[in-house]
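Researcher: I'm preparing a figure for a lab meeting and need a structural model of a single chain. I don't have an experimental structure, so a prediction will have to do for now. The sequence is pasted below. Please return the structure as tokens so I can convert it later.
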Amino acid sequence: MVRLLICLCAVAVAAAATAKPIAFAEGTTVMAEYGAGTMQELQIFYAPRFDYSVGAGHVDFASDVDGHREHISYARLNWLAHRWNLDDAQANIFIWGGAGSATGDRFDGTRAAGNAGFQADYETRRVYASMKSDLQRSSEFSDRIDTLQLGIAPYKHDYGGLATWLVLQGRHYTGELHSGIETAALLRLFKGGAWIEAGVTNAGKVQAMAMFNF
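Model: Understood. Here is the structure written out token by token.
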């Protein structure tokens, strides 16, 4: 676990309280997520403009219901559908879609696969909320992860200063990846763009995420 957190710290940079597939124009975003025993994902995107980015990702799923595994690699387009710049707050809606290939231990060979989803978020320097749905689908499987996060900052951080967030997360998996709702308590830290979050689920499993924008 310590080695995992060190690796994530080494690549952890973000500009705001919520992970986003688009950082800024002419910027590159690298995101890594680790859910012990269920999923691991790595993504990299480049944004030619402020409102869209293109890139690729790879995700490995491991069911804790029946043990089956799936491995999906994809190319993807992300689009900032709308942004609200408010007094001391910001809200966003992102949508995305892409295509790739998949392998798994419940079928032979490689299958064409598609990826689609959306994210809506709202944040201030003290509170934020995020709702996300991400679908990976092929002729052999349909796996969707729906995630709701609610966070509070115990203090109102200065821009460029250290921000600390206490985050509660609820997550629902389809495709027989997990039975029931998975909840997690997470600690999120970032400063000047440096980001990492880590915690444990209600089943006592490690969950962590890191992001890097440059």
